[in-house]
Write a structure and sequence with these properties.
With about 375 residues, the protein is mostly beta strands. It has 6 helices and 26 strands.
Length: about 375
């Protein structure tokens, strides 16, 4: 047999062994010495390898164990660029007391063993780029409790990125299942969405944190209006729940009130004040109410009665007359406040940041106190 290469600067051949010499294309031909017409060819192309420039790994990686779970999750490292020549990698760092990790092609299969926190490191074979993620193994039976059911409408606009590390934790509180893909969770006070593949998505923070200006809800409907116009009672309840340490979503509260039909004239005149106490019962919140009569000699007397019942750290919901809106004659306004010292409250969604209840009513409410609630869990 005779062997030859069409371009020795690209590749040489010796008894069928091809040796690369440079980038390009060469044709390797083998033929019979006795009959040169009997031959075969193959084309050899040598390209410059595309180097790996980085690797990313979903963080955190979450594995649910127990109950009806599969006790495993699948993670795919993202090697950059996508056309890198060598896509292989190694894994290390995982504490096998909590989980094991196995490479399966371009995937990593993480199997949970027992609840706890460990980590997983991925290192590319080319150039040695690495990424490390926390691995949270969560016992589905013991490690969380369901707070409320969330539907897909609550995911208003999750971003499209996998977020980097969040604070380590040993317990995830699952507050609801969004759909078959995502869980709505509270991680040491940080609320977001975790996919079944361990991806973290930030929600629209407006809906799950303290709201200090209802104008930020101008795109959220309540009845026929948006909540920047008619949502003060709901915002006050939402803020009060958060101040009490109770997880809250303004969208969940809105949906509850709409189903109850608790708005006036389909939301044109806000919320029926009587529905606030119904809401307390629905969400298992205790309260004491101090209501002023329709005509009072001194509105501040009733504010003082309410204040006397509230300890430092206590939370109140206040309703008063507010003429700061562009409405003839003014309008009822309701806010939440927390007592931070004797005679001093920090307010939320009001045009005065803090003061006594009298100061708040005098500044924000034209001196007309209507009713107030001291609330606790």
């Amino acid at each position: 047999m005779a062997w030859r290469s069409s371009d020795d600067t690209v590749a040489t051949v010796n008894q069928g062994v091809v040796t690369a010499k440079g980038y390009g294309t060469a044709t390797i031909t083998v033929s019979s010495v006795d009959d040169p017409t009997m031959k075969a060819t193959c084309v050899v192309t040598l390209q410059k390898p595309v180097a790996v420039s980085g690797v990313k790994l979903a963080n955190p990686i979450v594995v649910f164990i127990g109950d009806d779970t599969k006790n495993q999750t699948i993670v795919i490292p993202l090697i950059s660029p996508a056309n890198a020549t060598f896509q292989t990698f190694t894994i290390s760092g995982i504490n096998t007391a909590y989980a094991t990790a196995t490479i399966d092609g371009n995937r990593i299969i993480v199997d949970g063993k027992k609840s706890g926190v460990t980590s997983l490191k991925v290192t590319t074979d080319d150039r040695g780029w690495s990424a490390t993620s926390d691995v949270f193994v969560v016992d589905k039976v013991k490690a969380y409790d369901v707070y409320t059911k969330i539907d897909t409408a609550m995911v208003s606009k999750p971003n499209d990125g996998v977020k980097t590390a969040i604070a380590k934790f040993s317990k995830i509180k699952i507050m609801g299942t969004v759909n078959d893909e995502y869980y709505f969770v509270n991680v040491n006070g940080k609320i977001g969405f975790l996919s079944k593949f361990g991806q973290w998505l930030d929600p629209d923070d407006r809906f799950y944190t303290l709201i200090n200006n209802q104008n930020q809800l101008s795109d959220v409907h309540y009845g026929t209006r948006t909540m920047d116009y008619n949502g003060c009672e709901l915002v006050a309840i939402h803020n009060a729940f958060l101040l009490l340490g109770k997880p809250s979503s303004i969208l969940d509260i809105r949906d509850t009130f709409e189903k109850k039909g608790a708005y006036w004239v389909f939301g044109e005149l806000g919320t029926d004040p009587a529905s606030i106490t119904w809401c307390f019962a629905t969400y298992n919140v205790k309260y004491k109410e101090v209501q002023a009569p329709p005509v009072a000699v001194n509105w501040y007397d009733y504010a003082s009665v309410l204040d006397a019942q509230v300890p430092v750290g206590g939370v109140v919901i206040l309703s008063f007359w507010n003429d700061s809106l562009n409405i003839p004659g003014g309008m009822l306004h309701t806010i939440a406040a927390q007592k931070i010292a004797k005679d001093t409250y920090k307010t939320y969604n009001a045009n005065v940041s803090q003061g006594s209840i009298g100061d708040i009513i005098g500044t924000a409410g034209r001196g007309v106190y209507i009713t107030g609630y001291y609330v606790w869990r």
